[in-house]
From TrEMBL:
This is CheR-type methyltransferase domain-containing protein. The keyword Transferase applies. The keyword Transmembrane helix does not apply. Coiled coil: none annotated. Keywords: Methyltransferase, S-adenosyl-L-methionine, Transferase. PROSITE patterns: CHER (PS50123). GO terms for biological process: methylation. The lineage of its organism: Bacteria, Bacillati, Bacillota, Bacilli, Bacillales. InterPro entries: Bact_Chemotaxis_MeTrfase, CheR_C, CheR_MeTrfase, CheR_N, SAM-dependent_MTases_sf. SMART domains: MeTrc (SM00138). SUPFAM superfamilies: Chemotaxis receptor methyltransferase CheR, N-terminal domain (SSF47757), S-adenosyl-L-methionine-dependent methyltransferases (SSF53335). Residues 1-261 form the CheR-type methyltransferase domain.
C-alpha cells in the first residue's frame, strides 16, 4: 500500500469514528501533524494506528486534541479588540438593545471571556455569548476558567486585578460577573447546523487550516447566521478577499458587515 493510500484510508476511518472529515482540512499540514503523532506513539503505518483507534477512547481523545488547534490567549491581537470596542460596537449598539454574539471556535474560553470584558467595558449590559468548539475537552476547560500566566500576558495589570484571582502559578477567572451571559456548547463548524440571528460572530484563526472549498462553505453559513448589518470578526491572517459574494462588506481590517436587505 502506498503512503498516500494509507493516509486516505485513515481519513475515511477517522470520519466514521470521530465524525470529523479531514478532507476539508489542508492535507499537507494535517498529514504532517498526524504522521508526527503516529510515529511518536510507535506505529509504523496509519492502518495499524486506525485499528487501535477504533477500540480506544483514550487514543481517540489524543487524536482529537492533535487535530484541533487550541492556541489562544486573552486579548489576542489587542489592536483588533480595540477596534471592536471603539469602531465596531457603535455600529450595532445601542441600536440593538441586547447583543447576541457567537464565539464560534472558542477553544479554552479566552476569546468569549475577552469579548465579555470588552462588552462590559463598553457599557453593553444586555448581551449573550454562545461559545462553541468541536473539542469537548477544551470546552470543559473553558467552563473551569483556570489559566496559566501565558494566557493573560496581554492583559494590563488593572484588568488582571479586576477579572482574575491568582492561585500559585495559575489565574482563576472571576466568572460570577458573567453568569447567565456565556453559554458553552459543542459544535462542528463544517457539518452542524448553525444558530441564527447573531449581531456579532467571531471566527478567528480557524479557516487558515481549511481548504478553499471548506472556507467558502463556512463563510456562506456564517453570513446566513448574521442578522442584517451584523458583524463577522475574523483572524489576523484570514482576510476575506471577495466579501461581497457572501453578502458582506469590509468596515475595518478583519471586520465585515452583512448587507442590509433594505439597501
Amino acid at each position: 500500500m502506498t503512503s498516500a493510500n494509507d493516509y486516505q484510508l485513515f481519513v475515511q476511518g477517522l470520519k466514521q469514528i470521530l465524525r470529523i472529515d479531514l478532507n476539508f482540512y489542508k492535507e499537507k499540514q494535517m498529514k504532517r501533524r498526524l504522521t508526527s503523532l503516529r510515529d511518536k506513539l510507535g506505529y509504523t503505518d496509519f492502518q495499524s494506528f486506525l485499528a487501535d483507534l477504533r477500540h480506544s477512547s483514550a487514543l481517540q481523545d489524543v487524536v482529537l486534541k492533535r487535530i484541533t488547534i487550541n492556541v489562544t490567549e486573552f486579548y489576542r491581537n489587542p489592536e483588533q479588540w480595540n477596534t471592536l470596542r471603539t469602531t465596531i460596537l457603535p455600529r450595532i449598539y445601542p441600536e440593538n438593545k441586547r447583543l447576541v454574539c457567537w464565539s464560534s471556535a472558542c477553544s479554552t474560553g479566552e476569546e468569549p471571556y475577552t469579548l465579555a470584558m470588552v462588552l462590559e467595558e463598553a457599557g453593553v449590559r444586555q448581551y449573550e455569548i454562545l461559545a462553541t468548539d468541536i473539542d469537548p475537552f477544551v470546552l470543559e476547560r473553558a467552563k473551569e476558567a483556570v489559566y496559566p500566566a501565558q494566557a493573560i500576558r496581554n492583559l494590563p495589570p488593572e484588568k488582571r486585578q479586576t477579572y482574575f484571582t491568582q492561585k500559585g502559578e495559575t489565574y482563576l477567572l472571576r466568572k460570577e460577573q458573567f453568569r447567565g451571559k456565556i453559554f458553552f456548547r459543542k459544535l462542528d463548524l463544517l457539518h452542524d447546523l448553525f444558530p441564527r440571528e447573531f449581531h456579532l460572530i467571531l471566527c478567528r484563526n480557524v479557516v487558515i487550516y481549511f481548504t478553499d472549498e471548506a472556507k467558502d462553505r463556512l463563510y456562506r453559513k456564517l453570513s446566513d447566521a448574521l442578522v442584517p448589518k451584523g458583524i463577522l470578526f475574523v483572524g489576523s491572517t484570514e482576510q476575506i478577499f471577495h466579501p461581497h459574494q457572501y453578502g458582506l462588506h469590509s468596515v475595518a481590517p478583519f471586520f465585515y458587515q452583512k448587507q442590509d436587505v433594505h439597501t
